[in-house]
Amino acid sequence: YMYLAVVDCTGHGVPGAFMSVLVSNALSYAVNEMGITDVAGILQMVDVQVREKLRGQSQNEVIQDGAEMILIQIDRETGELHAAGARRPLIYYRNGQRHEVPPTPRSIADDPELFKDTPFRGHKLTPQPGDMFFLFSDGYADQQSTIKRRMGKSRFYEILDEIHALPIAQQRAILEQRFKEWKGDLEQTDDVLVIGFRFTMPGSTVSL
């Protein structure tokens, strides 16, 4: 299998870096040590591991840190794709139409008592040659403009609608250009990560 994930952790500076290390280690533990292959199961294990580490750090304090994530798994032989999200969706385009794989409406390290009836959910897709996939943090859509307005998900999706059929390098250039135009002279609001890849054929290399 090939795995790809976008993780957006809370906090800035040292707290944010600490959370990033916790999630990275938990992902490695779930996949490499526990051998979990079910994407929803991986998110569940990451959630458990991160909460345990945070509980050890904060003693009896209420845990307020967490992470949003979209995780995908691609079978290199069959091309079958499995996805699971913690408040982060997977967007893909097929024959010019946009599709959204919805995330589970909870974050990594959320209070388990509040979300005991909301288990992480996995989705199975059978990609077709030419399908274009996007994984992203919320940083692009959260960017403020000079008129003090967020770009928002709708405007971000409109850009993806416009560029998804273009060559990958051209897509990246347009995404960067539109972001700079929207931001203007303002500071960048948040970390920004957008990953796109086009599916070719099972067993071949995807274009990132």
What brief labels describe this structure?
8 strands, 208 residues, 35% helix, single chain, globular, Phosphatase 2c, domain 1, alpha+beta, 5 helices, four-stranded antiparallel β-sheet
What does this molecule look like?
The protein is α+β, with helices and mostly antiparallel strands and 208 residues long. Helices cover 35% and strands 22% of the residues. The protein has a domain at 2-137 and 193-198: 4-Layer Sandwich (Phosphatase 2c, domain 1), CATH 3.60.40. It has helices at residues 13-33, 39-58, 139-142, 152-163, 168-183, and strands spanning 2-9, 67-74, 81-86, 90-94, 97-101, 122-125, 132-136, 194-198. The strands form two sheets. Strands 1-2-3-6 form a four-stranded antiparallel sheet. The protein has a four-stranded antiparallel sheet with strand order 5-4-7-8, with no helix packed on it. It starts with a strand and ends in a 10-residue tail after the last strand.
Which SSEs are present, and which pair or pack?
Layout: E1 2-9, H1 13-33, H2 39-58, E2 67-74, E3 81-86, E4 90-94, E5 97-101, E6 122-125, E7 132-136, H3 139-142, H4 152-163, H5 168-183, E8 194-198
Antiparallel strand pairs: 1-2, 2-3, 3-6, 4-5, 4-7, 7-8
Helix pairs in contact: 1-2
Category from helices, strands and their pairing? alpha+beta
Output the CATH topology of the domain at 2-137 and 193-198.
Phosphatase 2c, domain 1
In the CATH hierarchy, the architecture of the domain at 2-137 and 193-198 is 4-Layer Sandwich
Strand content: 15-25%
What is the approximate shape?
Answer: globular
Largest beta-sheet details: 4 strands, antiparallel
CATH superfamily of the domain at 2-137 and 193-198: PPM-type phosphatase domain
Rg computed from alpha carbons, rounded to a whole number of angstroms: 18 Å
N-to-C SSE string, H for helix and E for strand: EHHEEEEEEHHHE
Helical segment tally?
A: 5
Which stretches are low in confidence, meaning pLDDT under 50 for 5 or more residues running? none
Placed side by side, the strands forming the largest sheet appear as 1-2-3-6
Terminal CA distance: 17 Å
> What is the CATH level 1 assignment of the domain at 2-137 and 193-198?
Alpha Beta
* Mean of pLDDT: 91
Q: Kindly state the percentage of residues in helix.
A: 25-40%
- The number of distinct β-strands equals 8
